[in-house]
């Protein structure tokens, strides 16, 4: 499959990248390209210009300073999970980054690109020929949504592996635009709108991920089930962080809604409770309550619900021994 035609720019600074993006509203940012270029080959994304971030070499690092772990947005997933501090102290992040696609995706794909990836749908992530059997769906530029059987809505699903791990580690992200940078909670960049899944302003790019070192004090893990274990997006992914000293738990899910979901009602239920077999069995009915599952993937809603319960219970059981 060939790429469509596009103009290519490779700015040397963040300011220059943001200025180009502001001037060319339909331009797309290119990091590792493992998500974007596939979508372009399928003609579901056809930007007139690609703004490659390859010239921004300063955005490739994992470093600790002032109680924070700071990771540049262009850091490859492999470098993230091989970092000694991440591997030892932030196992949820290491497990999530090393579960992305295949080894090749991990050596090419960046942390920023993973967080900012497009939402997915069985009617969208297909070749142009495959899609030609139906009218263009809303996300691809038409009106109907083939999943919801309604016009002008999109229930495509966020399937990134790393976002739930970073959510339970209380990560924030730095967004940079022409006017400067601001640090915001990671959760706030996900819009929950299938057609435009990110809350980035025009000309804005994600430049850094910031994790409080305090998050290394608890137990954390990420668990995923995929159709092809060695290369696939999650059918469901679940990240869990627990602290023995505060009795606090944080739980986040992916591939179950239009954005990664922090399950706050479930966290409230667990607050202060001793983690034992009885408590863990009690979470089963609660896990799926805060998600909005739609038939946008080949896996049934009931199967996904079942997997969600199993993954969270399995992660909590591990926490019971480890926290
Ligand atoms: C076969 C296959 C299997 C895959 N399996 C998985 C999987 O299991 N789990 C998973 O999470 N992903 C998976 N992916 C998707 C992808 O490989 C990863 O998400 C990867 O981490 C994306 O990073 P990238 O740097 O290549 O992103 P790119 O493709 O370069 O960019 C992805 C999107 O983010 C935007 N973007 C990139 N960087 C920034 C930035 N700094 N600021 C703002 N916007 C930005 C781009 O414009 C684009 O829309 C898979 C892809 C394929 C083809
Ligand atoms: S959920 Fe509907 S609009 Fe969105 S990508 Fe799928 S078919 Fe298209």
TrEMBL record:
Domain spans labelled FAD-binding PCMH-type? 1-216
What are the protein's UniProt keywords?
FAD, Flavoprotein
Protein origin, superkingdom: Bacteria
Has keyword Flavoprotein?
Answer: yes
Q: Which Pfam families has this protein been placed in? A: CO_deh_flav_C (PF03450), FAD_binding_5 (PF00941)
Query: Cytoplasm: is it a keyword of this entry?
Result: no
Which one of the record's GO molecular function terms can you name? FAD binding
Q: What is this protein's record name?
A: FAD binding domain-containing protein
């Amino acid at each position: 499959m060939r790429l469509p035609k596009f103009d290519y720019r490779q700015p040397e600074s963040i300011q220059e990248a943001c200025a180009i993006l502001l001037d060319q509203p339909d331009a797309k940012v290119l990091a590792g390209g493992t998500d974007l270029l596939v979508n372009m080959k399928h003609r579901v994304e056809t930007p007139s210009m690609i703004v490659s971030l390859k010239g921004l070499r300063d955005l490739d690092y994992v470093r600790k300073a002032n109680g924070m772990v700071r990771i540049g947005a262009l850091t490859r997933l492999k470098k993230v999970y091989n970092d000694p501090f991440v591997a030892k102290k932030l196992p949820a992040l290491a497990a999530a980054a090393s579960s992305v696609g295949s080894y090749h995706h991990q050596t090419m794909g960046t942390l920023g690109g993973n967080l900012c990836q497009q939402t997915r749908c069985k009617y969208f992530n297909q070749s142009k020929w495959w899609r030609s059997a139906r009218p263009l769906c809303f996300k691809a530029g038409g009106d109907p949504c083939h999943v919801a059987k309604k016009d002008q809505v999109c229930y495509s699903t966020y399937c990134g592996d790393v976002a739930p791990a970073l959510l339970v580690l209380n990560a924030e992200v730095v967004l940079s635009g022409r006017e400067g940078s601001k640090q915001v909670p990671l959760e706030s960049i996900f819009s929950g709108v299938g057609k435009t899944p990110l809350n980035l302003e025009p000309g804005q790019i994600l430049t850094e991920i910031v994790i409080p070192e305090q998050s290394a004090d608890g137990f954390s893990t990420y668990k995923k089930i995929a159709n092809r274990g060695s290369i696939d997006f999650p059918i469901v992914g679940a990240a869990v962080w627990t602290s023995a000293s505060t009795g606090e738990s944080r739980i986040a899910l992916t591939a179950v809604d239009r954005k990664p979901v922090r399950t706050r009602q479930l966290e409230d239920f667990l607050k202060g409770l001793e983690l034992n077999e009885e408590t863990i069995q009690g979470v089963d009915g609660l896990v799926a309550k805060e998600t909005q599952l739609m038939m946008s993937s080949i896996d049934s809603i009931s199967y996904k619900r079942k997997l969600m319960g199993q993954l969270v219970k399995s992660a909590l059981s591990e926490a019971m021994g480890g926290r």
